[in-house]
């Protein structure tokens, strides 16, 4: 890493790996480029909760100590991908060249991904267990070669359809590889990942912390504050309908009804949990290539007030999913790396703030999830003195 | 009251007064009609937080034990006013006739109001102190004649302009009268009420609880959950703009820039408190008579995500202010009556859940305000055994 | 009809029949009740184009001269149906009782409908031709019994799925019956009706005028003015997406994907015709029972301006389909009755103003369609002197 | 011009001047840069009506034959201004450098502007007539030095407040200068320009064509198609309310109530003309610097359907005013140059398609205005053979 003068990481400070499944996707590219830009002071850390005062002195790895690598099935190099994102307005113009060295460095640490969803062995003749071995070896090599104090594996690949048979879908192969390599695992997508029943024993015996699933970035973020509002005010929600328009790879992936079903399950869980019961209404996800990486989400909520008066709330959210997701990915990598370091294991239900469908039993309203997250920060802080990785 | 068979209030149970300033307005009429309708089981208690499980066994007065009266400067009888509201869709058709007896009973307890804003003595030759005496006598007579265990005074009159000289505006005369009559006071409007410096000594020496001000019913309710969301996610709000369209008396009153200024101050306080700083942006309140008692509020929020990406959230709230306010008025009357009964005094900052510009020092996010309200319910419950007024 | 003093139709003036397929549905009930109400001067003729000055002296049948009847498969009497609509806010409270006599009179002229979509013979053992005969006889009896100068058949029944085999769907049986009974036919729905190839010879040989199909009431009405705007300004529409939320019977019928497909074809035709090419984007129709007869349609239009700048227009339409459709049904009955009287035959392409998917070759922008409609009025007017049916 | 190889304008073809008042503003910069980009084939001519087939062979000056100059009171050079616009997303990245030569050439032809609104003589000691002389000389010099076949003066400066006394406001000084220099005049703003009574004799005697005022770019464009839709369908509009949020210089200028009043008058005229009467409702224009050159316009339209049913249409327009205005400015310069060439004079009411408050007596619905524009193109075409300036 001596060739990257912009990342001041003297050999005496520990460095941490972030291994991204889908490392050449929009979210991963934005996270890698953005980490470098914020570490270098080019941008304020908007959207990063771990950079707010409550998280100081928690012993989180510094942004400048993060080293990126990952798996992907596509070849487009990260610097080129970043240029595409800048053309689409996701990254600021000029950023790809400003962080070119960091993008090149991360790109060198990307290894070929394996079978695509629905494809048993990727034409490789490998068994599922062999795939897991190959992936785990890739991760271990990364940690060793870079001299890292540890690594967190984060799934940011395209949503895969819910599996219909007993075989492990690709997301589960990567999740198993993470544990086999001794790394905590975070599932930022609605794909199966560690949720597969065949992986439950491994998850339990590994002694590793894990978190997920399905990052709560836009429409569902809103729902997690609006749902509690209606409930706290005793207003009866009659119907909650939503339409999402998005282009980019995500739009195309979610145009597959099976993939969309996985995504929508998370959205509906938030409503059912926060309202106490699932209201009428559907959620549509439309692939609209003209919108590129930008997303529009419209929600229409019909509710009854006093004496049955009919009222309506509509929300229109126009955002860029990659820009919403990337800082959360960095947050999660830092929090989970620190949790691992503190010896925490199993499902990190305290991270429900970040997810549509959180592991473990936590509250479903954003405000309570935020309170839990701050308490979690306190737990991490209490042990901040006993180790070297501090900010 | 023996002529009102629908209110089963045996003489052995205590009954409580709700004295409404603006007793013939939309909010008051809806509260009176709705209380009777819900008490009689004609409608579920949608919008009433005090009817949710957390508030059971808190010793709150039963809805059927509430007796209404008040001051107003207009003559239109409550049954006729209720018919108008039914024509405008605020009350269900058929409700005015179903609760006709209760409306007639409340109408009999309405006494003439005093000077209008900007009018020093209403042409009466009375001094301000004499006005306070007259109003206080009206309230005391009501309590005595009805044999009530107590009464709460709630201001639901049209918003008055902020006073520009030292004299007490009408809302403050009524507030002073409440205290002089030994009654707790709730200011559901942005008018001055007890906030006048000349009333501070009286408020302190009275030993009475009070709450306010400016009920949080629609756009500001939303803001009190959206503001915290942006802050918790470290998203930088650049501009928050809003337009409110409303007809009815409220629209006309708020078309007065001075009255609107009072209202807007509360709205802006919520943003500044929840976001940490006031963003760019204005709030408009337009009188649109064609909308009658229905209101549309549009909010446009420009915020920055990761790496300065520009995003926008828009919300459109279409509701009926009277139907949103009335159940909160009933909640407040019950909670404050019980607080008085429990011997609480001074500003009830735990009721910030209900207000744009709450008295005392409480949190500004709805979720935290709700948590405070539940704790408050716990305090009321702890003493529920030592008295007879239970549900 | 001598028992209905509110309809002043002296025996010397001709009276015209309006035979409604789906005569007990929301649209039919609203049309029948509304015709009586407007004729009696209880309401202004909002939404009725034929009551604007351009249509005076065109020889259209007076509203008071219209006599209603029809087919339906359900039993709920019109007065009761009207009460339901008043409860849902579609009809004004008090209207059902004000026009009770007219509703009862129309209800007496409703005959049992036949097979439902997908049901070959309704369990009756009748052949398709026999069904047509029965229906035609019903219509002829109506005309004779009421002593009418003629009748127009208008299909306002629930949308049926597009037929998949060669047999005539129910809507086509009724259309054939209209022609067999010598009556002009109007298809206000997207169902097949006269569009079936097997009916083409009959339509041509009948010498009767006909019009359709699929009334343009809300979202598509908007599209027919917005599409031309974009084209005239040379703005490149990239994607046009829409979601419709509606309850009532219509919502349930259109939740059937096959029925929705029929409806959406018309919506898309309007875009393709007015923009010159079909843009990206989907249309969803969701059944949301909580909305009752009210509909919300959201459209999101992404377009490119100068130098590729990305812009967005969104529209939200909240209306009541029955209230939008009913005056158009009355317009069409009057215009087509008069066209028949004037000896016009075949597809009335000049009525494209009213339809999503008009018969014949007419313009697709609303403004040009309106100009055509006014020219058509002129043609009807030119012959207004040669007959007795004047307003 | 030999130093600008990208504009292939052989000396044998006539070249036409476009003299812009406010030549360094957003609209002017976008028009100049965009004209070069489209002429060079870098972008399709989106938003330019004169590039659609109906305007071929009308003898309009080619884009490559347009030469730009103008007046402005600010110094920022056009290339730098263009970079700012690219940073704000108004111009595509890379465009300023691609058309750098053309921007430099135009910048050399910009002369200092005169007094600002409210400032009688700009501290210069000049009389109004002397200012007009100076401006006219600037324009004549431009035409002579560049060897132009003629020039059109277009006002695209910031909106000035309506003048309150008899003196000519700055926009009128420039308008008078245009006529004195023998050039047609187009007022793309709501400022006074030629509408000043003191200029009426000059306008009449000059024999020059002129057009205006106030370009119809966004919210009002929409209103000019929605207003006719409601009227044609006989739907009674009860209230039409609007809020505009915009940053950039335009937002600041229109935050001045006097300037906003000028702008709003045009918007309201469109409603009153297309609906037949002005409905209830206000229009707000808010300066929101965070939005930069992007504008959001929200409209809320309450209308009554059949039997008084209450319905609502809302529209949200998100666009970039400069990108909407610039192609219209180019259209107008070409059309008016050609009209001048054809010997037309006086108010060009046929150009109402482009304006909120058009000169002369023309229709107010966009569709009819478009039909007029096409007829006007036909008139220009009829004489296309008798001169050299062809495309």
Automatic annotation (TrEMBL), chains A, B, C, D:
GO biological process: inositol biosynthetic process; phospholipid biosynthetic process
PANTHER family listed in its UniProt record: MYO-INOSITOL-1 PHOSPHATE SYNTHASE
Name used for this protein in its record: Inositol-3-phosphate synthase
MF terms (GO), sorted A to Z: inositol-3-phosphate synthase activity
Annotated family: Belongs to the myo-inositol 1-phosphate synthase family.
Stretches assigned to the Myo-inositol-1-phosphate synthase GAPDH-like domain: 218-322
């Amino acid at each position: 890493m001596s060739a990257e003068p912009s990342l001041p990481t003297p050999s005496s400070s520990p460095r941490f790996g972030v291994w991204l499944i889908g490392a050449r996707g929009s979210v991963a590219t934005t996270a890698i480029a953005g980490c470098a830009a914020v570490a270098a002071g080019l941008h304020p850390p908007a959207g990063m909760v771990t950079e707010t005062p409550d998280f100081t002195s928690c012993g989180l790895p510094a942004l400048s100590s993060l080293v990126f690598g990952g798996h992907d099935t596509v070849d487009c190099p990260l610097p080129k991908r970043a240029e595409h994102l800048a053309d689409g307005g996701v990254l600021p113009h000029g950023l790809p060249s400003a962080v070119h060295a960091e993008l090149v460095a991360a790109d060198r640490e990307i290894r070929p991904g394996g079978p695509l969803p629905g494809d048993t062995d990727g034409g490789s003749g490998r068994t599922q267990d062999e795939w897991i071995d190959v992936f785990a070896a890739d991760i271990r090599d990364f940690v060793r070669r870079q001299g890292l104090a540890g690594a967190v594996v984060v799934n940011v690949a395209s949503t895969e359809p819910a599996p219909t048979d007993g075989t492990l879908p690709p997301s589960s192969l990567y999740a198993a590889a993470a544990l086999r390599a001794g790394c905590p695992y975070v599932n930022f997508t609605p794909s199966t990942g560690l949720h597969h029943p065949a992986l439950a024993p491994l998850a339990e015996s590994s002694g590793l912390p894990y978190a997920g699933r399905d990052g709560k970035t836009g429409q569902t973020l809103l729902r997690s504050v609006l749902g509690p509002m209606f409930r706290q005010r005793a207003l009866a929600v009659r119907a909650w309908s939503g339409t999402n328009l998005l282009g980019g790879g995500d739009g195309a992936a979610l145009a597959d009804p099976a993939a969309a079903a996985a995504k929508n399950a998370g959205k509906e869980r938030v409503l059912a949990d926060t309202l106490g019961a699932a209201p009428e209404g559907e959620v549509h996800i439309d692939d609209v290539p003209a919108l590129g990486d930008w997303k529009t989400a419209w929600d229409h909520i019909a509710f009854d007030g006093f004496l049955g008066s009919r009222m309506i709330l509509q929300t229109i959210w126009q955002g860029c999913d990659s820009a919403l997701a990337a800082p959360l990915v960095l947050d999660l990598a830092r929090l989970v790396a620190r949790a691992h370091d503190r010896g925490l294991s199993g499902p990190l239900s305290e991270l429900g703030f970040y997810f549509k469908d959180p592991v473990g039993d936590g509250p479903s309203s954003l405000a309570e999830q935020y309170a839990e997250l701050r308490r979690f920060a306190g737990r991490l802080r209490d042990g901040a003195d006993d180790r070297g990785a501090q900010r």
